[in-house]
Amino acid sequence: MGVWRPLKRIITAFPVPVTFASRMPDFQNTLDFARAQDAADPVRAFRDEFHFPQQDGRPVIYFSGNSLGLQPKGCAAALKQELDDWAALGVEGHLKAMHPWYSYHEELTAMTARLVGAKESEVVVMNQLTSNLHFLMVSFYRPSGKRKKILTEQRPFPSDTYAFASQISFHGGDPDNDLIEVQPRAGEHTLRTEDIIARINELGDELALVCFGGVNFYTGQAFDMAAITKATHNVGAIAGFDLAHAAGNLHLALHEWGVDFAAWCTYKYLNSGPGSVAGAFVHEQHHGKGLPLFAGWWGHDKHERFNMERTFKPMHTAEAWQVSNAPVFSMAVHRVALEQFDRAGIGNLRAKSERLTGYLAFVINEVAKATGAKLETITPAYPTQRGCQLSIVAHGKGKDLFHAITAKGVVADWREPNVIRVAPVPLYNSFEEVFRFGEILQTALA
Fold first, then answer.
1. Domain ranges in the chain?
2. Are 277 and 327 in contact (CB under 8 A)?
3. 131-140: pLDDT as tens digits
4. What is the pLDDT of residue 25?
5. What's phi and psi for 389, nearest 5 deg?
6. Topology of domain 4-73+346-445, per CATH?
7. pTM
8. Cβ(169)–Cβ(316) below 8 Å
9. pLDDT at 82 (0 to 100)
10. DSSP assignment, residue 310?
11. What is the pLDDT of residues 298-315, one digit of tens each?
């Protein structure tokens, strides 16, 4: 407990990332240990700001924030404010609402930039994730001559595969030849950074775009985005990332890493509701450079937007990639969620996450030893190579085990063919929940 308690003072004084790897005390698979960790948790108060689903009159153990985050309690009031303004003001709400609708997305910019490690001019909240990937690839996937291949990880989220393949086909290419997936080594579940870089170098001037997930949805592996970006640029290609499982989960530095573009959803770790508005990043080096893009009036110079001119004049920020005005209701919820992250600090949340997921890995291992079950965690063991999520293969148990823990109040998630994904989220999950998950898992296995 000696490390965890002084940490509260450190975090209060210096809201920067803190690591525990070198001084982490031994874990204990006991309720007293888990409760002591929660008592010393400097961000524990945020748990009370969320609604938890109930089962048999008790909150569930909600480890599915990697699919859909819990609802912040402030969402209802935020939505009601916009509904009340609409009722009272009608169209005048665009300029006279408490949060004027015309510029609503601008209220989200600074918080978004801090969350993903960007300049304010480099981010915009708009559309949904796959839509944003397509809009960005209009500008950044420009196959020419032999430089036409897209490189990604083996088994990215299927929507990414569909988007990449359709973009290749749209440009007259052949997805079977031009969409390349880096494979893990034989007998391994995850990718080695050196193998990714070697594949980038091997493709060389055939490579147009490298686009990985920041965190792979299936294995939970977090990729070295800085190293991938550098290697990609060294061969003259563009580096982009799908941050669906990384935004709000990892400590990102998109501007510093030199990433060309990125897109993310907000309904997973960012707790902004099903199908909520998404986000996009475009590095400032690409602003105002005349890149081809699909134009819409919300990307037009905002100072002249209502002149209704015939010729498109794009803004010299990431806002140029907007095509439509703000979806205010989903942005109202997203604003509540972003304010929570701003108050907590992504560095502080990441510090807790490394410890919380580390404790989960320890508890799973203890359960395996106690029961003799073969529980294989395919997520990397080192904290910098993963986010919140652990992906577990229960050999010989499979979906029956998943159904058993679900019946006992654990909300996790199953991914075919044989993975149970569990993701303790630092904003609202606790060490005691990890301990109780271990109890449920052990009972189910026994």
1. 4-73+346-445, 77-344
2. yes
3. 999 999 999 9
4. 53
5. -75, 140
6. Aspartate Aminotransferase, domain 1 (3.90.1150)
7. 0.92
8. no
9. 98
10. S
11. 999 999 988 888 899 999
316 pLDDT more than 90: yes
Helix ranges (DSSP H) in 14-66:
31-39
Return the structure tokens found at 268. Answer: 């997973």
Amino acid at 135: F
Q: Any idea what DSSP says for residue 104?
A: G
Q: Are both 4-73+346-445 and 77-344 of the same fold?
A: no
CATH of domain 77-344: 3.40.640.10
Distance CA 78, CA 254 (A): 29
Helical H runs in 171-266? Answer: 175-178, 193-203, 225-234, 254-257
Q: What is the identity of the amino acid at 339?
A: E
Q: Where are the beta strands (DSSP E) in 79-199?
A: 123-126, 149-153, 179-182
Give the span between the Cα atoms of 143 and 137, in whole angstroms: 11
Q: What would the two tokens of residue 144 be?
A: 């020419």
Whether 419 and 351 have beta carbons less than 8 Å apart is answered as no
Q: Tell me the C-alpha distance between 418 and 148, whole Å.
A: 35
Distance separating alpha carbons of residues 191 and 185, to the nearest angstrom:
7
Tell me: pLDDT of 8 over 90. Answer: no
CA distances from 388 to 116, 226, 384 (A): 17, 20, 11
161 Cβ contact list (under 8 Å, min separation 6):
152, 179
Rounded CA-CA distance 260/262 in Å is 7
Of 104, 124, 114, the closest CA to residue 342 belongs to 114
**Which helix (H) or strand (E) covers residue 215, if one does?**
none
SS3 of residue 304 by DSSP = coil
The confidence band for 155, taking pLDDT boundaries of 50, 70 and 90, is: confident
Residue 414 burial (C-beta neighbours within 10 Å; 0-12, 13-18, 19+) = middle
What pLDDT does 364 receive?
Answer: 97
Q: Which amino acid is at 201?
A: N
